[in-house]
Amino acid sequence: MVLGTGSGVGKSLVVAGLCRWASNLGLRVAPFKSQNMSNNAAVLSGGGEIGRAQWLQARAARVSPRAEMNPILLKPLGEGRSQVIFLGKPLGVFDIREYKELKKELFPKVVMAFASLRDEFDLVILEGAGSPAEINLLDEDIANTRMGRAAGAKALLLGSIDQGGVYASLYGTWMLLPPREREIITWMGINRFRGDLSLLEPAHREITRLTGVPVIGVLEHLGVLPLPDEDSFSISGEGDAGESSSRQIRVVVVEWPHLSNRSDMDPLRYHPGVSLTFCPLDGPLPQGADLVILPGTRQTVRDLELFRKTPLFSWFRRYVREQGRVIGICGGYQMMASDILDPEGVESDCRWTPGLAFLPFSVRFEKGKISRPVSVMWQENSGAGSEHLGGKWLSGYEIRHGRNHLHAGAHLFSVRGESGEPLPGEGLMSSTGKIFGSPVHGLFDNEPFREFVLNGWLGGDLARTADMDSIQDEALDRLSSKVSRAFPVIECRP
Question: What phi and psi, each to the nearest 5 degrees, are found at residue 452?
């Protein structure tokens, strides 16, 4: 098990590195995180959701992601409320007190989910959540030492030197845990170090003297990897832009307060020649843009209302009037509708909300949630993409409560399900050809779609890149090599 002194210390990436290392040893390995809180979800084969971090770890392990790898996914809605996903399916929306009672019922089922993985795999690597030493929550914590004890796991306690006070964090975490909870902590480790390792040796000896737990290793700062850190990038401002082949394409992403599936932007963030900027609603205004993306959000109506009250919205309206190009994804696409209806209060208390009216459709939220892998194909004669994308099936996925009802025109995409069954068409493009959107996530992962958007629709001249699968696999192998040298904790043979 990998525990952390707090959130953001790198637990998820270390688990991913260990999973790839174990897989390279010939072991059948699975990741497991009993409870994750994230709006950055991944869709499973056959439907259902888990945290995207566990999806990445399963990929590192070279196994198919399963609901048992992340039995509980909390998707925060704000004001102390979250949608609870259990074994891939929504249970409902619960406030903090309600969820505290629900956890008592769910924990035995979580242990059973872990047991199903333990029985099938050679090795299961667990990940904790936040800090295990939140002493006000110890009695109800189901993601850290309690889960580790139930699994019979040995735990690495990880701290990040980047945040400062790493030795105080390691020692303080260990000290605050009751003796029974400390027992699973077998090793300590440090992440994100820059410099001479010999400088740390005196501190390692002292921590071991104080706790009896050895500091097993130090992981160097890995710089920027094309992999999500924890469950999102947790950054705003300029992304990592590569060199442009002839000109740089500036992409601005509106960073909603309830932004979801930030991973949609990964292929653009790491594309040479693309400058990607996440702009929070209360941040500085963009200095020009070739493309604005309205990404997914877990709170479509609320984020739209907040957007309308900001200087960024005035900038955006001016950008649209000047024929700027815009793409909407899922919640961002729903904002483009003429109106948004939520008669059952699925997402908000607003029964009717005017949309941006960029495209001729309405959105109606329903309690039943769509969560499925899909393929889409740009329909012939439906816009500028026909010549680039006609006849090509693109992979993606849907996670939404909204149903989109067309007022006029034709859908942009034909859609089919995982088994090839036809589904209702989706997506629209404006009459100007400058604005389009779709409820489907993951389209930028498809090289033909990136090529169309960047070089066809935006008129760029950027070199093609390898697909994200290849880029991420290479990064996982590099991560595995670094993690295995830093934390040699797997003591078993293939």
Answer: -65, -50
Cα separation of 382 and 190, whole Å? Answer: 54
Query: CA-to-CA distance for 64 and 105, rounded, in angstroms?
Result: 28
Q: Which of 226, 258, 285 is the last residue of a domain?
A: 226
How far is CA 406 from its chain centroid? Answer: 30
Q: Which domain holds residue 421?
A: 237-472
Amino acid at 480: S
The one catalytic residue in 330, 350, 388, 411 is 330
Compute the distance between CA of residue 198 and CA of residue 477 in angstroms, rounded to an integer. 27
Pair (189, 303) in one structural domain: no
Query: Taking the mean position of all CA atoms in its chain, how far away is CA 210?
Result: 38
Q: Looking at the predicted structure, is the pLDDT value of residue 231 above 60? A: no
- Dump pLDDT digits (tens) for 126-159: 999 999 999 999 999 999 999 999 999 999 999 9
Amino acid at residue number 7: S
Measure the CA–CA gap between 83 and 242, rounded to whole angstroms.
Answer: 38
**Domain containing 13 — which CATH number?**
3.40.50.300
Please report, rounded to a whole number, the percentage of residues in the chain having pLDDT higher than 90. 84
- 328 is written with which tokens? 């909407």
Query: What mean pLDDT value characterizes the chain?
Result: 92
Strands (E), 146-273: 155-160, 185-193, 215-220, 237-238, 249-255
pLDDT classification of 383: cutoffs 50, 70, 90: low
Backbone phi, psi, residue 51, to 5°: -60, 140
Told to judge if 441 belongs to the known catalytic residues of this protein, a careful annotator would answer yes
Q: In the prediction, which pLDDT does 238 show?
A: 40
Q: Look at residue 226 and tell me whether its pLDDT is greater than 60.
A: yes
481 domain-assigned = no
Q: Is residue 141 part of a domain?
A: yes
- Burial class of 232 by CB neighbour count within 10 A (0 to 12, 13 to 18, 19+): middle
Q: What does the pLDDT average to over 258-263?
A: 94
Q: What is the mean pLDDT of residues 240-260?
A: 76
- For the cut 50, the answer to whether the pLDDT of residue 232 exceeds it is no
Cα 261 to Cα 265: distance, rounded to the nearest angstrom: 8
Domain for residue 27, yes or no? yes
Number of domain units in the chain: 2
**Residue-level pLDDT at 388:** 79
- Rounded to whole angstroms, the Cα distance separating 99 from 94 reads 6
Whole-prediction pTM: 0.91
- Residue that is last in its domain, among 177, 196, 226: 226
Q: Work out the angle at residue 40's Cα, subtended by the Cα atoms of residues 307 and 283, and round it to the nearest 5 degrees.
A: 30
Give the Cα separation of 340 and 201 in Å (integer): 60
- From CA 452, how far away is CA 460, in angstroms rounded? 10
Please, which residues bridge with residue 187 across strands? 156
Query: Which of 153-157, 224-228, 233-237 comes out lowest in average pLDDT?
Result: 233-237
- Same structural domain for residues 381 and 288? yes
